[in-house]
Each structure stands twice: as C-alpha cells, then as structure tokens.
Write a structure and sequence with these properties.
Blueprint: H1 3-14, H2 19-26, E1 32-33, H3 34-40, H4 46-58, E2 62-67, E3 73-78, H5 80-83, H6 86-97
Antiparallel strand pairs: 1-3, 2-3
C-alpha cells in the first residue's frame, strides 16, 4: 500500500462534516448519550448524527452501548483505537493555528 492510498483510507474514515466534531465531544474517555451529543451539536440533524455515528462505529472508532430499558438509553464512547487518534488531531489543530495570514492580492490602481 502506498502512502497516498493509506492517507486516502484514513481521510475517508474521518470525512463528513460532523465526524471530527463528534470525536472532539467524545475525547478524553467521555461517554455521551445520544441526546447529549444532539444538544452539544445543535446544528446537526438527528438523521445526520445517527448516520455519522454509525459510520464511525463501522470503522471501529466509536463504540455504541444500548441499555435494555424503557425509554431506550444509547451511549457512545471512543474505542481504544479511536482514542489513539487524539494526539494526531491535537497536532492538526496546532498546525491550523499556525496558519500564516493570507496575503491580500493588490488591486490594480484606478486610472
């Protein structure tokens, strides 16, 4: 496998508008109920939250716990492998914070 295809696979697991936001709410060993994630990310629809969580679960990044009770209680937490992503994402944040100020293009002088 080439580095390019490896990074493509990694990015595919994390692509999606909300996946990284969801992960940040679960970092640090936090377990969150579905409703807590909904409240923590108010701009996400319930359908999208379910979809993104399912994909993260299928990829082995997030684990889902269903408690047998009425009403149903569903909780999510990062797997050990998912938690190991924290340092990489911290580095990504550090990198983004160091972004140089974009240079403005000079407008041509008006005649």
């Amino acid at each position: 496998m080439t580095a390019a295809s490896g990074i493509e696979d990694a990015i595919q697991m994390l692509e999606g508008r909300w996946k990284l936001v969801i992960l940040f709410h679960l970092f640090g060993g936090k377990t969150r109920r579905f409703s807590e994630l909904e409240r923590a990310i108010p701009a996400i629809s319930q359908k999208m939250l379910i979809q993104q969580l399912r994909q993260l679960e299928q990829d082995g990044i997030v684990a889902r716990i269903v408690h047998a009770q009425v009403p149903p209680k569903v909780e999510y937490h990062l797997t050990e492998w998912g938690q190991s992503l924290c340092p990489a994402l911290d580095e990504l944040l550090t990198w983004a914070e160091k972004r140089p100020t974009p240079k403005r293009r000079r407008r041509p002088a008006r005649a």
